[in-house]
Amino acid sequence: MTASVGVIGLGRMAQALVRPLVERGIFAASDCIGVVAREDSAQRLRTELPAGFTVVSASDPQAAQAWMAPVQLLAVKPQQLDAVAAGVLPPADSTSSLVISVLAGITLERLQHTFPGRVCVRAVPNTPCLVGEGLCGLAWGQGVTPEQQRWVRDVFAPVSEVLELPESRLDAFLALTSSGPAYVALIAEALADGAVAAGLPRDQAHHLAQRTLGGTAALLQQQKLHPAQLKDMVGSPGGTTMAAVRKLEQAGLRSALIEAVLAATEHGSSLR
Q1: Which of 73, 76, 115, 116 would staple 9 via disulfide (CB 3.0–4.6 Å)?
Q2: What ranges in 163-239 are assigned the alpha helix state H?
Q3: CA–CA separation, 269 vs 272, rounded Å?
C-alpha cells in the first residue's frame, strides 16, 4: 500500500498521529498533505510540522490533492463533515482508497454514504495519545482489506494501545476512554483543592495529586490488581483512608462516575 496520506484537519490529535509516523519513517513528510480551514493556520503549521509536509487551506486548489491520496485521515469537527465532503469526487480506484475517521459519533454507515467508492474505518483515540499513552478503538467498514487493517494499526500504534471493537461498542468505549480524561482531571483538581484546604501550597498539591493518580494507575496495571484489592491494601481498620472513603461513599462518588459514563454513552448515540 502506498505510504501517501491526506490529512483533513490538523488539530492536536491529527498532529499527534502524523508526527510519529514521519519520525519513524513509515512515510516521508513529502508524502503528506494537510488541509486546514484558514490560510493563517496553514502558515503556522508549515513552520511547526516536519520539513516537506505540505499544508494548505481548504480554499487552495492544492487541497484537492489530499483526496487523491490513497489514504485520508479525517480529523475535522463532526459538524464540518458535510461541508468537507461537498465536491469530493469518488476515487478512481475504490479498492485502495481508505478514509480513517476520528470524528466522534459519525457512523460507518454515514461515512460510507458520504464518501462513496471509498472504504472507511472509524477510530476513537483519546487525548493521552498526545504523550504516547493513549487508547484507540477501531471499527472496520465493509471492504477493508487485511493490508489496510495492518496499515491503520500502524497509524495508531506509536501513540496508543489499539483495540478492535464492533462498532456497537464504540459509544461506550468513547464514554470511558475519550471522555474519561476529563473525569480524571476533575478528580485531580478536587484532590489538589482538598490538599490546599488542608495547608499544602497550590503547585505542590497539583503535583502530588497528579503523581498519586499516575502511580496508582501504574500499580493497578502492572500488578494486575482489582481496584477493590488496592483500596483494601491502603485502607487499614479505623484509619484515615477509611474515614475518607466513607465520605466519598456518602457523597455518591461511585454512582456519579457510573452515571457520567452512561450519560456520555447516551449522548454519543444521539449524535447519529
Answers
A1: 76
A2: 170-173, 180-197, 202-222, 227-234
A3: 6
